[in-house]
Each structure stands twice: as structure tokens, then as C-alpha cells.
């Protein structure tokens, strides 16, 4: 293996005042922090990205790969990065976007009208800008690699990435507004970019950095927003029919209202119907999606003596406590749980007279690398079975929302029928927007329907399951909008790689590393979605899983650096064994375990193939002739893996394991002959 450090080749790097190791850690931390900040902030202003967050992620991966491939082809400092970041902030603040609710075949519901530029105009701008912005920090990281042994450089890169996650997670925990993200970005640019010549540095670094901080500060002061871990939350005080109302919007979308219980019951019949469909007044009530507190206030007004209020967003819960006119959260009968509803059902042993899913539409995805929404695991057949298990004898389960499509009402009703063993009550309160209430008792005798539901109409899709929790996707296909968009992304990426990195033959020797990157992204997606099911779709779980994946990668690097590991064919065998184990272990079995044992089993099942895959990568990477080109090829593979993740819409998340296995078989077949002989 070629482990000796190479001589520095960049004049800019020789002149840098910061030593290579701390510079590499800082640049890597900045790279991941900037990626997370872009995903979070652009999604709060461009509503398309609340549902296509991996669009920014794919652009980031492209930029990171290009940054590594650019090393050695230019000695200029990447001053373009802060300039493009400033331009992107200006464009996004000048042209915010909301999305039309009537778009077909897409996994979101959002605002009632469209404003701002259309998706075809703004999304390419966001994608290309994200790629160029991230290319700068990646180039700074890549320039450190030739100065260190391969695996040592990779090690410090991972340490930096973990640091970036930790810093962003901390800022999310304290609800820091984006101006703090801008300050960190400005500081990193100032430290990492060499100030030579001074005039160019001032014009291309200092001015854009100050502009970014100033614009984000202005947004923070003028929008009056509260930044939760999921949304930019804004409030407005209104008066409707003489009643004071607090209107709550998230990411620019009307989301909730804090309305007195009596007024809400008078204005909209759906809020009272769950109580009319029960055979006895419910005393113990569980409300999932408690939000600003109106549903809690209604439960108290109906005579509930104990209410467990589950809300995933801490800031929405805080707003409910401070703005709701009925002050329901101050009532001693109410206990608040800030967590994911499905996770609460899986962990709690309490039973209830009424379980209510109260408009739990999240309006955002779990992460930048999946099609999973925060509430996706609430509407599967397994979730409704879990809800039934928490009902007392004679209890009822109910949900209501504006479902938009009649087939969706039928799908949920059919799911409830399968979970409860009998037909539920279905009340379509208004055909405009398919405002409906669906209720089922533990037995058919425990519900009082106004009329019998005739059953699902022909063509209604099967109930969603935990493996394919895509409630809003009617057919097991990839919607055309995704296919077209992903195809264009791949085309642009091919052209960009050729323009920045030169002939493709530079990467030809590293085709196996490219496939390793594709497969790793699929494994990461499977881990994120699996842990979301087992422990909740909260931002804390998501951050822990991201960090856990990087820790597993770092552990693989450390083991490879310090110990004599088995030959590559043997490690590939361990990898395939890990994939087989992950395929064989059912989610139902893991969910049945106590939480501590569940955590141990889940970590073992999810991280064994990740660890083995990264031992394979570390061994192969250590033996490459060109560190930056081989690493860049791997990162571009991760971008393709982000596109391929949409295959889960057809085959389910478990099916991604088969796709990953095929990719790893391809990587093994493309392993250079000298590596096989040496092994």
C-alpha cells in the first residue's frame, strides 16, 4: 500500500498560516456544516425544497466531488464559493416560493396557492448554486489530502465532519436563527481562504461574507420567525368572526391556528365528530399532533380527565402554551410529550378511551436523503395496529384531515379496516379538499356511524406499510417529475465533471470506488429510515444516526490503519453477510424488543454492513495512486446513490438492500486485478 505523504503541490497551501491537520478538520467541519445549513435554510424559503431536500443534498455531493477532482488542476483559491453563496442568499430572499396543492403524483401537500418563480426556474438555480458553493470547501479539504497519508487524511476528514454535525445540532437545539449560521460560514471563509492578494480577498471574500451575515440578520429581525429544528415558524394575530386567532405558518405555509375550543367546534364539524362516534364519553385521551393546543382544548371541553398531548416540534408546543386563548397546556390534566407519535405508541404502555391523530401533516421530510416525511410511519397498517393495542375495551381511534383526494380517504379507511377487523365510520365533512373524519372502535359495537361506509372504491391502492410508508403515492412508481428531474441532474453532473475534472479516463481506474459510493448512500438511507421507524422521526434521532454512520466509518478507518485486516475478498464476504442479516431481521421483531435491547440490535444490524463496506473502501483507498481523484469518484458515486434512493418508492426500503448488494458485487468485479492478486 502507498501510505507515504506526498509533497505539497499548491502554492496557496504552502502560504497558509494554519497547519495541515487543523486546517483539514476545520475545512471538513465547514463543508458538512454548510451543506446542512443550505438544506435547512433554502427549504424554509423555497417550499419546493421542503419536499425535495435531497435536491440540495445532490447538488452538495456533486460540488464536493468536483472540488476534489479540481485539486491539481488549479492553484487559485476558491474565492468563487463565498461569492455564489451571497448571490444565492439574495436570490432566495428576493424570490421565495410556495407550492400549489393541486400538483399530482408528488409526495407533498402544501399551501393553497403558488407564488414566486416556478419549480423549473428556481430549482436548477438552487442545485447549481449548491454545487458551486460546496465545491469551494471541498477543494480546500482535497488540497490537504496529498500532504498526509491516505487514511490519516480520511480520518481527519471524518473527525471534521462529526464536528460539523455537532455544531449544527447544537445550534438547532438552542433554536439559533440563520444569522448565526452565516456568522460561522463567514468565519470559516476568513480563516481558510488565504488573503493574497489583499484587494482580491477583500472583494471576493470579505464583502460577500458581510453581505450574507447582513441579509440573514435582516431576515431574522424582519420576519419575526422562530426557528424550530424543523421549520421557520411565523405567527400572525387575526380576528375571525370577532374571535381572536393566532395564525401559525411554517416555511411560509399556513399550518395551524390557536383557536378557542368553542369557536373551532362551531366553525368546523370535523373537530367534534370523533367524540360523537364513540359509545361513551372518553376520559383518557391521546392526541398525536397536539400542536398549538386546539385539539387538546376540545378534549378537555368534552370531559377528558387525562390527556397525553404528543407533538414532535418543541416550538409549536411552546407557541400553544403561550398563545392559545384557552391555555390548555396549563391544565393539570394535560401531559405533554415532545416526540414522534409512532415512537410514543411503540414505547408507551398506557391505554386510552380515545386516540386521535389530529391533522399530523408535517410539511417536511425527515432528512435530505430520503422520501420519508415526519408523519409517514403514523399512517401505515402497523401503526394503526399499534394504536388499537393502546385502546381500552370500548375505546375508539380517530383521525381527521383535509385529505385532498377521495382515494386517499378510502386508502386510510381500508387501512383502518384491516387493522381493526371491521369497517370504520367515514364522515366526509366537505368534498372541497376531502375534509374527512375516519373512526374505528375496538369492535364494531364500539363505534356509532351516521351511515355505513360502503368500502373502498375500485382502484384504491393497498394500505401503506412500514417498508413502503408512502401514503400519498398512489401507485408503486417513481412519479414523472422525479424521473425527469433526476435525469437532468445526472446529465448536468456528467457535463460538470467533464468541464471541471477533464477527461473521464482519469476516474476509470476507480470505477469500483464509484460503485462503493453509490452503495454506501443506499445503506445510509436504509439506516436513517430504519432508525426513524424504531426510535422516531425526530431531528435528534436523525442527527444521532448521521453521526453514528460517520462514527462507524471512522471506526473502519481506525481499524484499517492500526490492525492487519482480512483481504478485500474476505471483507466483501463480511459485507454481504451483513446485508443478508439486515434483510432477514424483521422490523416487527425489533419493535417488540425493549428500547435498550432494540438499540443494541438495531445498531448491530444497521452498522455491520456500513462498517464492512468502509473497511473495503479504506483498504482500497489506501492503495490508490491519486488520492483526490479516487475520493472524488467515490463522492460522485454517493450523489448517484442519492438519485437511486428513489427506487425505494417502488421496491420499498428493504429492497434497497438488494440494490446495494448488486452494486457491491459490481464493485468487487471491477476491483483492479493487482488488488485481487495482492489480497
From TrEMBL:
Listed name of the protein: Spermidine synthase
PANTHER family assigned to the protein according to its UniProt record, in alphabetical order: THERMOSPERMINE SYNTHASE ACAULIS5
InterPro entries given in the database record: SAM-dependent_MTases_sf
UniProt keyword terms in alphabetical order: Membrane, Polyamine biosynthesis, Transmembrane, Transmembrane helix
Transmembrane domains' residue ranges: 24-43, 49-72, 79-99, 119-141, 153-173, 202-227, 481-501, 539-557, 569-585, 597-617, 629-649, 655-671
SUPFAM superfamilies documented for this protein: S-adenosyl-L-methionine-dependent methyltransferases (SSF53335)
A Pfam entry, by short name: Spermine_synth
Amino acid at each position: 500500500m502507498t501510505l507515504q505523504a506526498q509533497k505539497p503541490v499548491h502554492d496557496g497551501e504552502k502560504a497558509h498560516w494554519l497547519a495541515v491537520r487543523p486546517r483539514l478538520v476545520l475545512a471538513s467541519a465547514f463543508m458538512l456544516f454548510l451543506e446542512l445549513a443550505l438544506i435547512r435554510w433554502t427549504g424554509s424559503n423555497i417550499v419546493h425544497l421542503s419536499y425535495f431536500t435531497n435536491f440540495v443534498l445532490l447538488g452538495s455531493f456533486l460540488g464536493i466531488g468536483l472540488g476534489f477532482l479540481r485539486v491539481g488542476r488549479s492553484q487559485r483559491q476558491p474565492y468563487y464559493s463565498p461569492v455564489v453563496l451571497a448571490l444565492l442568499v439574495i436570490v432566495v430572499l428576493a424570490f421565495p416560493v410556495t407550492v400549489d396543492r393541486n400538483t399530482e403524483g408528488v409526495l407533498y401537500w402544501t399551501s393553497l396557492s403558488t407564488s414566486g418563480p416556478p419549480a423549473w426556474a428556481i430549482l436548477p438555480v438552487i442545485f447549481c448554486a449548491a454545487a458551486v458553493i460546496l465545491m469551494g470547501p471541498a477543494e480546500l479539504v482535497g488540497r490537504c489530502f496529498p500532504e498526509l497519508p491516505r487514511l490519516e487524511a480520511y480520518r481527519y476528514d471524518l473527525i471534521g465532519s462529526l464536528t460539523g454535525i455537532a455544531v449544527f445540532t447544537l445550534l438547532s437545539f438552542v433554536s439559533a436563527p440563520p444569522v448565526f449560521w452565516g456568522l460561522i460560514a463567514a468565519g470559516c471563509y476568513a480563516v481558510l481562504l488565504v488573503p493574497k492578494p489583499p484587494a482580491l480577498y477583500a472583494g471576493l471574500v470579505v464583502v460577500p461574507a458581510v453581505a450574507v451575515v447582513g441579509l440573514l440578520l435582516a431576515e431574522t429581525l424582519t420576519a419575526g420567525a422562530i426557528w424550530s429544528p424543523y421549520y421557520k415558524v411565523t405567527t400572525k394575530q387575526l380576528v375571525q368572526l370577532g374571535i381572536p386567532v393566532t395564525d401559525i405558518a411554517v416555511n411560509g405555509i399556513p399550518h395551524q391556528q390557536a383557536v378557542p375550543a368553542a369557536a373551532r367546534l362551531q366553525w368546523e364539524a370535523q373537530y367534534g365528530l370523533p367524540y360523537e362516534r364513540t359509545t361513551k364519553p372518553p376520559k383518557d385521551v391521546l392526541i398525536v399532533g397536539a400542536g398549538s393546543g386546539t385539539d387538546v382544548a376540545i378534549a378537555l371541553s368534552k370531559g377528558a380527565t387525562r390527556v397525553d398531548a404528543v407533538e414532535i416540534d418543541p416550538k409549536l408546543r411552546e407557541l400553544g402554551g403561550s398563545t392559545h386563548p384557552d391555555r390548555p397546556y396549563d391544565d393539570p390534566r394535560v401531559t405533554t410529550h415532545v416526540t414522534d407519535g409512532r415512537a410514543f405508541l411503540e414505547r408507551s404502555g398506557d391505554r386510552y378511551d380515545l386516540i386521535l391523530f389530529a391533522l399530523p401533516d408535517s410539511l417536511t421530510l425527515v432528512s435530505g436523503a430520503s422520501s420519508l416525511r415526519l408523519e409517514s410511519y403514523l399512517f401505515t397498517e402497523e401503526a394503526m395496529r399499534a394504536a388499537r393495542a393502546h385502546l381500552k375495551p370500548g375505546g375508539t381511534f380517530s383521525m381527521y384531515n383535509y385529505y385532498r383526494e377521495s382515494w386517499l380517504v378510502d386508502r386510510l379507511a381500508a387501512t383502518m379496516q384491516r387493522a381493526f377487523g371491521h369497517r370504520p365510520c367515514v364522515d366526509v365533512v366537505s368534498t372541497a379538499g376531502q375534509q374527512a373524519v375516519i373512526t374505528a372502535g375496538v369492535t364494531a359495537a364500539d363505534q356509532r356511524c351516521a351511515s355505513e361506509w360502503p368500502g373502498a372504491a375500485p382502484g384504491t391502492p393497498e394500505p401503506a406499510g412500514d417498508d413502503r410508508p408512502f401514503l400519498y403515492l398512489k401507485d408503486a412508481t417513481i412519479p414523472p417529475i422525479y424521473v425527469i428531474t433526476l435525469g437532468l441532474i445526472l446529465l448536468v453532473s456528467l457535463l460538470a465533471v467533464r468541464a471541471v475534472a477533464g477527461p473521464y479516463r482519469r476516474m476509470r481506474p476507480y470505477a469500483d470506488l464509484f460503485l462503493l459510493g453509490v452503495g454506501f448512500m443506499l445503506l445510509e438511507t436504509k439506516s436513517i429510515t430504519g432508525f426513524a421507524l424504531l426510535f422516531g422521526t425526530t431531528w435528534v434521532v436523525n442527527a444521532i444516526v448521521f453521526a453514528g454512520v460517520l462514527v462507524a466509518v471512522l471506526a473502519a478507518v481506525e481499524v484499517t490503519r492500526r490492525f492487519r485486516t482480512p483481504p478485500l475478498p474476505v471483507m466483501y464476504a463480511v459485507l454481504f453477510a451483513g446485508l443478508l442479516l439486515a434483510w432477514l431481521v424483521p422490523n416487527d421483531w425489533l419493535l417488540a424488543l425493549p428500547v435498550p435491547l432494540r438499540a443494541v440490535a438495531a445498531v448491530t444490524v444497521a452498522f455491520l454492513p456500513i462498517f464492512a463496506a468502509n473497511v473495503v473502501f479504506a483498504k482500497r483507498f489506501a492503495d490508490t495512486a491519486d488520492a483526490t481523484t479516487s475520493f472524488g469518484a467515490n463522492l460522485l458515486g454517493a450523489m448517484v446513490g442519492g438519485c437511486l434512493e428513489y427506487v425505494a418508492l417502488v421496491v420499498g426500503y428493504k429492497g434497497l438492500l438488494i440494490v446495494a448488494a448488486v452494486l457491491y458485487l459490481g464493485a468487487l468485479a471491477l476491483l483492479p486485478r493487482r488488488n485481487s492478486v495482492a489480497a
